[in-house]
Amino acid sequence: MPVRVQTRSFLALLADLAHTASKDPDAGAIGGILLHTGRGEIGDEPGRTDLLVGASTDRFIAGHTYTACAGQLSGTPTLWALRDVKSVIAVFKASAKADEMHAVDITRDGPLVTIAEDPNLFDDGLKLQFAQMPVDDYPAAGVYRNLNRETADRVENQAGRLVEALPRTDYPSSKLDAFLKVATARKAPLQLYRTHQAEAILVQIGGTYRGVMVPSRYEPDGDERRPDAEVHTPDLEVLEALQKPQQPEPPKPAGRPGLFLVED
Q1: Distance between CA atoms of 15 and 6, rounded to whole angstroms?
Q2: In Å, how far from its chain's centre is CA 29?
Q3: Cβ-based neighbours of 48, under 8 Å, separated by 6 or more
Q4: 42, 125 contact by CB (below 8 A)
Q5: How far apart are CA 204 and CA 188, in angstroms?
Q6: Can you tell me the distance from the alpha carbon of 73 to that of 55, in angstroms, rounded to the nearest whole number?
């Protein structure tokens, strides 16, 4: 049975998940996007609907999102190589831009995946076929457990001592950049949930995107409750004295708006 999905939301899902997939050409299974179907609610819409769901990871970050569809994929989840994901976006981007109601059908015949326009609407419609990657080596269970994990505010170190949480958390800039790109595309704030400097950081962007990021580890050197880079200030009293108080605006004369006042 084919799965039909609105092309714009489908391409947006693929583009968002591409940011958290591994870009290493030798990455193997994690250099792809895992897709499956399920049923659930979207936002405030009442009732459950078919969902096309995706996840991706490079082992240090992971992303997960979903969109409405019609139909269910049978069998195990399907794993698409990043190069094929980029081809899908390139082939159907123009159609999605021209028609917000444009939709495609996703079918699977063994390892062969086909993305095609509705044959009843387009006699010579666009069609793209590629072979899915073997899903056996994909760390799907670990990805989903970490996306939905509970984090602790006290963590045991290698010596077996419980370490309390400190305010400082080191974010790997290259990994944080992936989530910033998703937030920019979705025009939504990047929400970061952290409990401890050594614990995974949970991410939410909008109502349907979740992520997780492994922070950069560091050994506390001192209190770590404020930055230790120096702030070199000028004479603040002199600067404050130079600031002129704002003058109140003069009252506007009474009269009909838009007319000159003429004295009798």
Answers
A1: 14
A2: 20
A3: 39, 40, 41
A4: no
A5: 9
A6: 16
**pLDDT tens digits, one per residue of 183-214:** 999 999 999 999 999 999 999 999 999 999 99
* Mode of pairing for the β-strands spanning 209-213 and 61-68: antiparallel
pTM of the model: 0.86
Contact assessment for residue 57 and residue 143, using Cβ atoms and an 8 Å cutoff: yes
- What stretch of H or E contains 65? strand 61-68
CB 113 within 8 A of CB 132: yes
Which two tokens mark 126? 């666009």
Query: Is the CB of residue 130 less than 8 Å from the CB of residue 87?
Result: yes
Question: How far is Cα 258 from Cα 49, in angstroms, rounded to an integer?
Answer: 56
Find out whether 33 and 18 touch, Cβ atoms under 8 Å: yes
Read off the DSSP letter of residue 70. B
49 beta partners: 40
Write the burial class of residue 140 (CB in 10 Å: 0-12 exposed, 13-18 middle, 19+ buried).
middle
CA distances from 99 to 66, 85, 86, 96 (A): 21, 21, 20, 5
**Tokens standing for residue 125:** 């419609």
Spatial CA neighbour of 14 closest among 109, 111, 113, 112: 113
pLDDT, tens digit, for every residue of 211-243?
999 999 888 887 788 888 899 999 998 888 888
